[in-house]
Amino acid sequence: MSEQEIKKDNTEVEAKEEKKEEQTKDAEKAKETEAKVEKEADVDENGLSKAPFKNLHVIVVTSGKGGVGKTTSSAAIATGIARKGHKTAVLDFDVGLRNLDLIMGCERRVVYDFINVIQGEAKLNQALIKDRHVDNLYVLPASQTKDKDALTLKGVEAVFRELDDMNFEYVVCDSPAGIEAGALMALYFADEAIVTTNPEVSSVRDSDRIIGILNAKSRRSELEMEPVAAKLLLTRYVPSRVKKAEMLSVEDVQELLTIPLLGVIPESADVLKASNSGNPIILDEASDAGKAYEDAVERLLGKEVPLRFTTEKKGLFGKIFKK
Questions:
Q1: Residue 53: DSSP 8-state
Q2: What span, in angstroms and rounded, lies between the C-alpha atoms of 32 and 9?
Q3: Residue-level pLDDT at 290
Q4: Is the pLDDT of residue 155 over 60?
Q5: Vertex 119, ends 116 and 123: CA angle to 5°?
Q6: Interatomic CA distance for residues 81 and 76, integer angstroms
Q7: Residue-by-residue DSSP string for 197-250
Q8: How far apart are CA 192 and CA 173, in angstroms?
């Protein structure tokens, strides 16, 4: 073979190798582009993952008006779910005004809080406080000192993803009242919302606004998923006052809010006693309020339980002369 033929062969080999390298580079570039597109498709406009949680079900306890019993209800419902054998976390979203730790009786054990975890100052398992009453229950308190703006959607999502990886089944979010930043953060990730209201017009009207936000601004609505399942929890109910037209009836509230009724919690001095002692009211099995929260948890978990405590209790003479 002549030198010229050898040179020609070498040139052809080099050309083939160059072409092969180009094809490899093009394939790698195409893969990178495809991966980038897939990644972008899995992230929403807020930079949050569109992927559903593996196990975690997010329940937010919310209201339009303050003082209706959200924190009491969050503590009772989380405790009730955990007592049914479900691994549960209860989170306080009320940054600067935390109360959940008091009602759960763990205020002296708070070392790190929700904001510490979001800002990377502590690991989630360092901040979670194991409940002293129920094995499957953990509390994540809010910060008393940090600004509400410290809560971010990405930070909250990261905490929820980690809870999901830790095999938590339920997270109950104790939301601040109204539509401030902390409330919107809690509402955003909800799968289910417990709208807590007192049987009075102003409380019901404000709750109606919250239902509107759930339908328009939740993660589920943005991703065009099934809407947040909103349920009504009516607290501080006094049948005798309803009878005197001093308070809205269960039917009145349902007609105004048009969402399914989860439960009716009667007014009870036992609630204040339980809160002051750091024991969720649901643990007081002799209390009507405790029994009503137990019924609400049963309904939340899919059981059909008849409503109690919606009619006036009759005294001894009432029972004797009952027609």
A1: P
A2: 35
A3: 97
A4: yes
A5: 55
A6: 9
A7: E-SSHHHHHHHHHHHHHHHHHSHHHHTT-SPPEEEEEEEEE-HHHHHTTSS--H
A8: 10
Distance separating alpha carbons of residues 183 and 137, to the nearest angstrom: 23
Q: What is the largest CA-CA distance in the chain?
A: 126
Q: How many CB atoms lie within 10 A of CB 105?
A: 19
Between 292 and 146, residue with greater pLDDT = 292
Residue 267 CB partners (closer than 8 Å, separation 6+): 236, 237, 238
| CA-CA-CA-CA dihedral for 186, 231, 169, 58, to nearest 10 | -20
Q: Which helix (H) or strand (E) holds 62?
A: strand 57-62
DSSP string computed for 139-207: EEPPPSSS-GGG--HHHHHHHHHHHHHTT--EEEEEPPSTTSHHHHHHHHT-SEEEEEE-SSHHHHHHH
pLDDT at 23: 65
C-alpha span between 168 and 170 (Å, rounded): 6
Mean pLDDT calculated for residue range 276-282 = 95
Exposure letters 5-20 (e unless 16+ CB within 10 A, then b)? eeeeeeeeeeeeeeee
Amino acid letter, 129: I
Please name the residue that has the structure tokens 């401030």: 180
Mean pLDDT of 11-30: 65
Pick from 255, 258, 235: nearest CA to 310: 235
The mean pLDDT value for 20-27 works out to 66
Which residues are bridge partners to 90 per DSSP? 139, 172
Q: Which of 187, 209, 162 is CA-nearest to residue 60?
A: 187
